[in-house]
Amino acid sequence: MLTRNDALQRDDNDPLKHKRNDFSLPDNTIYLDGNSLGPLPKRVEQRCLDVVTKQWGQDLITSWNVHDWIGLPLKVGEKIAPLIGAAPGQVICCDSISVNLFKLLSAALKMAPGRTKIVSETSNFPTDLYMVQGLTEQLGEQHCQLHQVERHQLADAIDTDTAVVMLTQVDFRSGHMLDMQKITQAAHEVGALVIWDLAHSAGAVPVDLDGCNADFAVGCGYKYLNGGPGAPAFVYVATRHQASLRQPLSGWMGHASPFAFDTAYEAAPGIEKMLCGTPSILSMSALDEALDVFRDVTMQQLRAKSVALTEYCLALMQQQGLLQHLKLVSPEQSSDRGSQLAFAHAHGYAICQALIARGIIADFRAPDILRIGFAPLYNRYVDVFDLVDALAAIINSETYLDDGFQRRHKVT
Ligand SMILES: *Cc1c(COP(=O)(O)O)cnc(C)c1O
Which domain holds residue 269? Predict the structure, then answer.
């Protein structure tokens, strides 16, 4: 029998327990949605104040040099690099995942002459698929076609006609984690390039882009990296591809010498060529500061606690008989999952609303998925215990049927 005291004991023995203090978390709230929007790291508050009042307010335009605003995209990229197994010079912070995908998809298609096929999964995050559809409209079907397949059809779909394989490593709904090493190798064997979306991987699971011989990747600043709402994304281009890569959004920040104000575009030689326009300094400064939370932990430590939290959650749900009602759609094996659990229930949306009414924040993904994100930097075992307790109360009493929990908000 697992008890609440046992949960408190686990927290006491947790080698990462001090990290929770790095975050400003509201009282009486259990936050299990760091996979959608990471919470506020305490140090970010002071940094934002400083950037606004001192850097912008007092030092004005001199801050581009004095506070190295101009170097921020590269600096932030280099802070993200060790979290995703990238050696220096391959990661830069800019734009959103969607925009970075457009740059990479166009560039990768150009690098695969004669090939037109882009392979992805039907279950991929829709924006990833939309960006290919937009590119097809631009280039025409004869130059770019999206092949969406089910997961079990991936191996067959990746063939000698394939220009690009575009996949999200950790599925945003189910948390299923793809084998990056194996898929990258299979794609390379038939001459295809791979773009990895690390939205639910970066800061959540250990990633080894260089070790997997990855070509390209994108990822999110506002999920597990805690950069704040709308924080800029990042993009990775393996060193070996940087010289030949041509990205279509040839803005001045990606120019070899933006302040020469030359009339002809000449791409910067390295990863800076992925930049387009002026970086959003307020937002990027917040992300820069937020990343320092990772300075004294390893992704292996975080992974160990993440696995322990998800296993503990499932054990508690089993004990409460909840798994008959909430069907686990995440893989059973923790090695096949990211840092989240997903459960299907016909009233998934209402159950999520009932949890929120009790101060427990999770989220819902259409059509019927209750999604629970576990962030080992600040989530405690006792949070998981209280979550399962609340779930049991909601399910057993069927309070989710109350009218108040049925109304759909714009953002779920
Ligand atoms: C969150 C998420 C995105 C977000 O894309 P933006 O363009 O940065 O808003 C993209 N892909 C995946 C898989 C995501 O989970």
Answer: 49-294
Judge whether residue 102 has pLDDT over 90. Answer: yes
The yes-or-no verdict on residue 240 having pLDDT over 90 is: yes
Query: pLDDT digits over 53-67, tens only?
Result: 999 999 999 999 999
Q: Is the pLDDT of residue 329 over 90?
A: yes
Whether 27 maps to a domain, the answer reads: no
- Neighbouring-strand partners of residue 91: 236
Q: Is the CB of 320 under 6 A from ligand 1?
A: no
Tell whether 304 and 281 lie within a shared domain: no
pLDDT band at 312 (very low <50, low <70, confident <90, very high): very high
Q: Whose CA is nearest to atom 4 of ligand 1?
A: 97
Q: Is 14 left (phi over 0), alpha (psi -120 to 50) or beta?
A: beta
The CB density around residue 398, as the number of other CB atoms within 10 Å, is 11
Give the pair of three-digit tokens for residue 356: 């929120």
Measured CA to CA, the distance from residue 184 to residue 85 in angstroms comes to: 15
**Angle in degrees, CA 363, 365, 366, rounded to 5:** 145
What is the number of domains present in the chain?
A: 2
Active site residues: 125, 197, 222-223, 371
Output phi, psi for 104, to 5 deg: -70, -40
Distance CA 276, CA 253 (A): 5
**303 assigned to some structural domain:** yes
Q: How far is the CA of 98 from the centre of ligand 1 (A)?
A: 7
For residue 35, being part of any structural domain is answered with no
Alpha carbon of 219 to ligand 1 centroid (Å): 8
